[in-house]
Design a protein that fits this description.
- The protein has two domains: 101 residues; 87 residues, Thrombin, subunit H (Beta Barrel).
- It has no helices and 16 strands.
Amino acid sequence: MPRSKSLCGDFAGQPGTWGYAESPLVDGDVVVSTPGGAQATFVALNKNTGDVVWKAVVPGRARAGYSSIVVAEAGGVRQYVAYTGDGLFGMALVAADFKTGEVKWSERSVAPGAVAYADGRLYLHGENGEMALVEAAPDAYREHGRFMPPTPPERASPGEKAWAHPLIAEGRLYIRDGDRLWCYDFKGPTGRN
């Protein structure tokens, strides 16, 4: 029996001026589409049952655009890339089983922001400049610390964000925000991370 979903009715979608024009993407066992809006900017459905596998929301209630989602690899990270009526977005920051698409956990943390991985940990750099250290575990979100670097730059407008990815090298964490750069040594007295 065919299953159907309404982008507007089921997901409070927000189409562009001329309605919806994308081609949904079938990726393995999921169908990915762009309802747009504040409840499900992007949604993935089980292609056999129509059940929601995951939803992603872009801050600012992004409207659906007129291009289709594609799969791309950027910086070694497989992700869905979509162009909405408000910008270009890549979606990857949820813990999911890569083979089945099953979401293991989801957490906003300091999002939106940039992510780096090293030594079994995720280093999250939020757009507001805040940093969080999270265990890269499939069973649960475990935050091990959070801080705001001292003397962050003054933001002249709401559009100025901290978008630089954190960098981890030789036991040091480097964070850039605007015209500021911080370096934290986290090797500890034993020289271990």
